[in-house]
Design goal:
The complex is a heterodimer. By secondary structure, chain A is an all-beta fold. Chain A contains no helices and twelve strands. In chain A, the strands form three sheets. In chain A, strands 2, 5, 6, 10, 11 and 12 form a six-stranded mixed sheet that branches. A four-stranded antiparallel sheet of chain A has the order 3-9-8-7, with no helix packed on it. The termini of chain A are far apart. In chain B, 0% of the residues lie in helices and 50% in strands. In chain B, the strands form two sheets. In chain B, strands 2, 4, 5, 6, 9, 10 and 11 form a seven-stranded mixed sheet that branches. Chain B has no helices and eleven strands. Classes of the chains: A mainly beta, B mainly beta. At the A-B interface, strand 6, strand 10 and strand 11 of A face strand 4, strand 5 and strand 9 of B.
């Protein structure tokens, strides 16, 4: 069975600095997708970035980028120039067959 | 963009009563909707997968007679918590997949969630 592990329950970063959130997963499948979702205090789940496993190039969305290491089954999220609005719970998710398997989440605190 | 409307956003009910939560896809058709439960400071726990026109598929440990799911149309799925008890108090979130999209193009669209408090 697939599993997703986020080993950092909480991270903090100074505003305008860079922070990296870790995520590892376990699967025997070769074709799958990986996602990072953000859940601010409003509880709305917001897609931050996504990566197709067959693509070697790391996905990038403005200040958000991933470091995808398929062999190591690692999928970390880097947030550059952190902003106060980035404060939220961040969930890593593994996707296949239209279902998502979720990590436990990392609470990101932005220090002004 | 695709919008999923979940209603109500919060509800307080007495123990023993039933509560219905609606999940609607407003501008797309969803053959599949997912119901999650989220405990404080924890991740989303998939409860069941709701398929239009057929019975829902429940995850292990989720009582199907307790959490009734109906997906009668391509735009509406409902979750009914029957004979609610205080331990059912939680945050429930639905999500839907656009009929025409692959997982990577439109992974899932989420409702805003429903906070249920059973007194």
């Amino acid at each position: 069975a697939q599993t997703v592990t986020q080993s950092q329950p909480e991270m903090s970063v100074q505003e305008a600095e860079t922070v990296t959130l870790s995520c590892t997963y376990d699967t025997s499948e070769s074709d799958y997708y990986l996602f990072w979702y953000k859940q601010p205090p409003s509880r709305q789940m917001i897609l931050v970035i996504r990566q197709e496993a067959y693509k070697q190039q790391n996905a990038t969305e403005n200040r958000f980028s991933v470091n995808f290491q398929k062999a190591a089954k690692s999928f970390s999220l880097k947030i550059s120039d952190s902003q106060l609005g980035d404060a939220a719970m961040y969930f890593c998710a593994y996707g296949s067959n239209y279902q998502l398997i979720w990590g436990a989440g990392t609470k990101l605190i932005i220090k002004p | 963009g695709a919008v999923v409307s979940q209603h109500p956003s919060w509800v307080i009910c007495k123990s023993g009563t039933s509560v219905k939560i609606e999940c609607r896809s407003l501008d797309f058709q969803a053959t599949t909707m997912f119901w999650y439960r989220q405990f404080p400071k924890q991740s989303l726990m998939l409860m069941a997968t709701s398929n239009e026109g057929s019975k829902a598929t429940y995850e292990q440990g989720v009582e199907k007679d307790k959490f009734l799911i109906n997906h009668a149309s391509l735009t509406l799925s409902t979750l009914t918590v029957t004979s609610a008890h205080p331990e059912d108090s939680s945050f429930y979130i639905c999500s839907a997949r656009d009929l025409g999209d692959s997982l990577i193009n439109s992974p899932l669209h989420f409702g805003n969630g429903t906070r249920l408090t059973v007194t």
